[in-house]
Write a structure and sequence with these properties.
The complex is a heterodimer. Chain A is mainly alpha-helical. In chain A, 73% of the residues lie in helices and 0% in strands. Chain B is an all-alpha fold. Chain B has 4 helices and no strands. Classes of the chains: A mainly alpha, B mainly alpha.
Chain lengths: 467, 122
């Protein structure tokens, strides 16, 4: 039964992907993968976490169809690995799910040769293929068959004509190989496997820190002294930096894009260094028994203050970036800065929780990777090219049209509409016209496998092609 | 470890995969001689990869009493994920050029199967 499902799936795989670009096919593949997983692992899929991942995977599949952005495709791939990994081991952390998902997808077929517990079962390894037997079985008859055909061809003109008419060109070997690839993939995922060492270690490790036997008051006292001095100095320094930052923010009158850009990027670089060092120092001091030492209050409070001050720094740089965006509009880099600031802010909050609730490093990895995953899916719900174009056209005080023209063709319709309302130079007019024509041509040339939501929106744009 | 037999089997496997993929694009019966000749460089590459990357893992990391199955389960995932990543990287860097993609597919499958052959040895 499973084999039939895999064969049908692999034929469908070839039908939707062979010689096609990404579009509806990736969404269909997602549905197909879920069906295969349900058939192969019906019991494992009746689980709240796995069902949630399946729903998220379907959501990203829908996003690929509607948004068709690189980010939505990446989100779909990561959701795919997460789901497969979750089926292989439901209780593992999300980053282990990714590892298991990737491993299952690329090497499940090879791993299955050894997929048994040696301590419980008597291993029954599949016998190796007897290559020489197969070579004899296929090779020798084939050689003689071809030899005799060549022999008979010379002896009989009718036979010669008949043989010459045989044409195997209708067989598309590439399509067949593509189906084999599909077979390999579905055969891998129908019964997900796991990276044993990583999964076991992840399942064994909890989120909470425990007091160890090496608890020594003397050593801890020295460490606390060092930590307190260091954190105090760093707090004073960051307060001073924040004051100068506020002064700079209020006195800065420049409207020059290059100056603002330099200010933002140098701020971001300082922030990156500051936050990474902050987290490393905090993780170092709160790595073990200091968490259980009664006299750690001062160090803890100083750490909390430092986290809060770093968060304030994040807010200040966000305000700076806001100014920049209000004047010059959105670009991918500026959006990237926002995302980085958001991630940093979240990282600081989770570090705060780690210290407050005496959690270990695993907790940070687990929570932060989960947040990153959710954030990736949320960000992929937005068509950034269109959002940037809409915002810049409507709100930016200084519009960089060249930047918008150089974005992907997804904003071609918006730019074309905008062109009708404004007067541009001849070059820019032509560039928008060309972009729009290329976009419509791309839409029209798509096969059904490559369709996206834009294909069902384009009717109103057909006419404008004739201008 | 039966290295020569593994190299022999891997060479045959690699030759079959590589030429099957390449013939799927452009079949030319005139290059059959080239196919046979290609066994030599393929064998050299296979030997280099097996002796240079797989054997050292077995030689250096396998404990005396450890079974092949446990060893495979421990180290094969790391090896295969690394090999896959490198092959994907190579394919992307080559701009998905057909000939090179077929080469990387061959490398990945052959190394993985070579691991299985080593691990199945008694």
């Amino acid at each position: 039964m499973k084999q039939i499902i895999i064969i049908i799936s692999s034929l469908l795989f070839s039908t939707i992907f062979y010689n096609q670009n990404i579009g509806l096919n990736l969404s269909l593949f997602s549905v197909l993968s879920i069906i295969v997983l349900i058939i192969g692992n019906s019991k494992k899929l009746i689980n709240r976490i796995t069902v949630t991942y399946a729903v998220l995977y379907l959501l990203t599949a829908i996003l690929v169809f509607f948004q068709h952005t690189t980010l939505s495709i990446i989100a779909n791939c990561i959701a795919y690995f997460t789901l497969i990994g979750s089926v292989s081991e439901t209780k593992s952390s999300i980053f282990v799910n990714w590892l298991n998902g990737l491993y299952t997808s690329i090497a499940g077929f090879f791993y299955r040769n050894f997929d048994f517990d040696e301590t419980k079962e008597h291993p029954k390894l599949k016998k190796d293929i007897d290559f020489f037997h197969w070579i004899k079985l296929i090779g020798i008859p084939l050689v003689f068959f071809v030899f005799f055909i060549l022999l008979y061809k010379n002896g009989n003109s009718v036979f010669n004509d008949f043989i010459s008419q045989i044409d195997f060109r209708f067989i598309n070997l590439q399509w067949i190989l593509f189906s084999i690839l599909g077979y390999y993939l579905f055969n891998n995922i129908i019964n997900p496997v796991k990276v044993d060492s990583a999964t076991k270690s992840d399942l064994k490790t909890g989120n909470t820190l425990y007091k160890t036997d090496t608890f020594s008051v003397e050593i801890l006292k020295k460490e606390i002294q060092l930590g307190t001095t260091l954190m105090l100095c760093l707090n004073v320094l960051i307060i001073f930096y924040l004051i100068t930052e506020v002064i700079a923010l209020n006195t800065s009158l420049t409207n020059n894009a290059v100056t603002l850009s330099n200010q933002i990027h140098s701020g971001i670089n300082a922030l990156i260094a500051s936050i990474i060092i902050a987290i490393i120092i905090i993780l170092y001091f709160f790595r073990g028994n200091i968490n259980f030492y009664k006299a750690n209050k001062t160090l803890k409070n100083l750490s909390f203050i430092w986290i809060i001050l770093n968060a304030t720094l994040v807010i200040l740089i966000t305000l700076k970036n806001n100014d920049y965006v209000t004047t010059f509009g959105f670009t991918y880099k500026r959006i990237g800065v926002y995302i980085y600031l958001l991630l940093t802010f979240i990282g600081l909050i989770t570090t705060f929780i780690k210290v407050l609730k005496i959690k270990n490093l695993y907790f940070l990895f687990r929570v932060n990777t989960q947040i990153a995953f959710v954030l990736l899916i949320l960000l992929s719900t937005i068509n950034w090219d269109c959002t940037i174009t809409k915002y810049n056209i409507n709100h930016a005080q200084s519009l960089d049209l060249d930047y918008l023209i150089n974005l992907s063709n997804k904003n071609a319709v918006l730019l074309n509409e905008y062109k009708k309302t404004k007067v541009f130079s001849f070059d820019k007019n032509q560039a928008i016209k060309k972009k729009y024509k290329t976009y419509i041509k791309q839409l029209n040339n798509r096969n059904w496998q490559e369709y996206t939501y834009a294909n069902f929106q384009k009717n109103s744009n057909y006419k404008t092609l004739n201008y | 470890m039966h290295i020569p037999s593994n190299i022999g089997k891997s060479t045959l496997l690699a030759t079959c995969i590589f030429w099957t993929i390449n013939f799927s694009k452009d079949f030319d019966s005139d290059i059959f001689l080239l196919v046979f000749m290609s066994i030599i460089p393929i064998c050299i590459s296979v030997t280099a990869v097996i002796i240079g990357t797989i054997c050292p893992i077995f030689w250096l990391l396998k404990k005396e009493n450890e079974s092949n199955t446990l060893f495979f389960k421990k180290w094969f995932p790391i090896y295969t994920i690394l090999a896959f990543s490198l092959c994907v990287f190579g394919a992307v860097v080559s701009n998905l050029e057909f000939y090179l993609v077929s080469f990387y597919i061959t490398v990945y499958i052959t190394t993985a199967q070579s691991w299985v052959w080593f691990a199945k040895e008694k």
